[in-house]
Amino acid sequence: MALAPKKNKLSLWQRIRQNSLAYKFIAPTIVAMLVVHLIPIVQGLYLSLLDVRLTTLTLYLKAPFVGLKYYIEVFNAIFGIGEDGASSRVTGLINAASNTLVYTIWTNIGTLGVGLILAMLLNRNFRWRGIARTLVLLPWVVPTFVTGTIFNFIWLEQGGLANRILLGLNIVDTPITWLIGPNSLYALVIATVWRGLPFTTIMFLAAIQVIPTDLYEAASLDGANGWQRFRHITLPLIKPIAATQVLFGLINGFYGGYNIAVQMFGGGTGFAGEYADLLVPAITRQTWERHLYGFGSAASVILMGMLLIFVGIWYRTFRDSLRAE
Amino acid sequence: MQRSRRPFINWLTLLTLISMILVACGGAETAPTATTAPAATATTAAQVEPTTAATAETAATTEPATAEPAAGEVTLKLWHMPNGAAPADAIQAEIDAFEKANPGINVEPEMLDWGAAFQRIQTSVQGGEGPCLTQLGTTWNPTFAAMGGLRPFTAEEITAMGGSDSFVAASWATSQLQGMEGTFSIPWFADVRALAYRKDLLEKAGLKPEDAFKDWASFKTTLATIQEQNPDVAGIAFPGRNDWNVWQNSSMWIWNSGGDLLSSDLSEATFNSDAAVAGVSEFANLYSSKLTVTNTLELNSAQVDASFGDGRTFSAITGPWLISNARTAADAGGWTNRAVADNLAYAEFPAGPGGSYTFVGGSNLAILKSCENVEAAVKFVQFLAGNESQLRYSQAIGMLPATKTAQADASIASDPLYSVFISAAAKGKTSAPIAEWGQVESVLNEQLGSLWDDVATAGGPVSAEVVKTRLDQAAQTVNELLGK
Fold first, then answer.
1. φ and ψ at residue A271, rounded to 5 degrees
2. Which pTM value belongs to this model?
């Protein structure tokens, strides 16, 4: 322990030399990560400065250099600035951004909230616990495209499972329209939460299981009730895991939804309507269908920047919890 | 011990890194070697030179390479999409027949999902590697032709297939590109839209098809009458927003109303004209007038067909593929045990103020510029455009042949169900042969899709202003994309 502060004072190169064996083992992974992640990111950044369109696509990275033209176009599309008051080559970005924000908030509330409840239930001793834990994990093995297809049938107004249950239990009098109109976004949120629950549940369950039981016993002896034990023991001790989950949720929220949306709405067209169009489907659709590849790259870079801001906020919020871990 | 182990780990790390780099870099070069290996080794030297000069524009440079392999085996790669209920069997039957007639040419089919096909072909065109032959959705031809990815067919090759006049006019139009001479693909089969309806319910209502579907007014009266007599049956079903056929289904109402999608020189959007707005409003208000299946706006094409098959609707906007459903045994997934099987009939779309037109789509066959066996590829295309293959394949997949000769064959022309499509196809319209069509389609799908949201939430008829606002927005975007 006494050596730890000294280690921190070593230069990066010295630390690499000191841990050379470990670095040799991770070297192939580092190279693979560079090839798989860094090169495409750099290529995407460069592409966003080029005029890559239908007629220049075959030139690819040799397409004419246009600098920040597409960045300006994306901002014009978002803020309605342009020659005619708004650039209309790309449409619906501000609407998609607003939907994405609502989608991210609700999917996080859903997966974290329900995931925590499920984890606490599955941590209790009951007869069919093993089977219950397996069942909770099932959605995880369903590919997202399949999830979209399944939920397309579940949400059908006539004959769909959701309406059958709601009508059967007398919760509603008339069938709800899920796949068109304002409910579309919530149809997408619920499908995403269903698919995301197993991961959050298993992470929370793992975190809860390592909490020493004597803490609860001591609290009980001191007269703490169930809520107090949860509030003052469980919650603080799972905070680092919760923080990580929020980070995953943010990233999944911003970048997610594409596969499910594409299959649930439209069998491949990728347009979930103005009520449920998200940023990534909107950018993908307009990039590929309208052949605006330079625009697509610029929009993706801006989306990455926006996400980094949120990650920054996340880090500031949970910095102490992460350090405590 | 540590000293003796360190060099080993150093070497192991180095070897792993080198092997990773070699695998990453070598992928692109090793793949073609693997695929050409089964072919005659004698051709290898001959093919090297054209490959290095592959960027040359003339297709002629590739032809010498194909003249030599006649002595050996030639392998053609074909990309096709899941056409019909048994797509692999249907294409294999054509390949078997072709290979039997053309020893030495082997065709290797690969089925692509419709959702992924466009990007796969685009990547292939961009990278200069891919199959020799590919199926193209009719609206894709201009895009890939403009990218310079397709090898044009020569006048002699087209003449050998019977000439351009031997194909349905609307289908042939999809093989061209405005502003560029040449035929970039050959129509393979036609997807023609019509109204499927239940003739038993029409007879019960005492109506004749020629009166019932004569014009918009009589059509709406027919739907209302049928619904009144059959409380469990809706008037019509059609896909709303959640489908590929958003603009296609609306376009027929635009054309029949006297409007058009683009101006005659194809340089400007006209789908927001007064006539077009009136046509789309007429279509949209079928839902508001409660003449449709209640959830029709959320359905996709397959679900619409299913609701027709289940007897939940009197009519549906669909294609000829229901014929094979009606004639396929129930235990093979067909409808022979249902009321609809004996009562399926088709009608052309009711005429509006502008006439009666229908949408003609389908698929074409294209040879990619990177194809090294052009002669063999042309032979296969000529085979597929031949009468025998046209008849067999189109019936296997439930579409219409693209050639007039095949359409005139007694097996189709005298069939009461197919004959409606032949008559409709003669008055068919389709997408514009411009490079930007994909963009036009995307914008139209978005705004018309949003219009279906408006219709679903309106709680009553949507006004012409609502329709016009959507179409104006689409027109503004399309005009900007077209450079107007």
1. -110, 115
2. 0.83
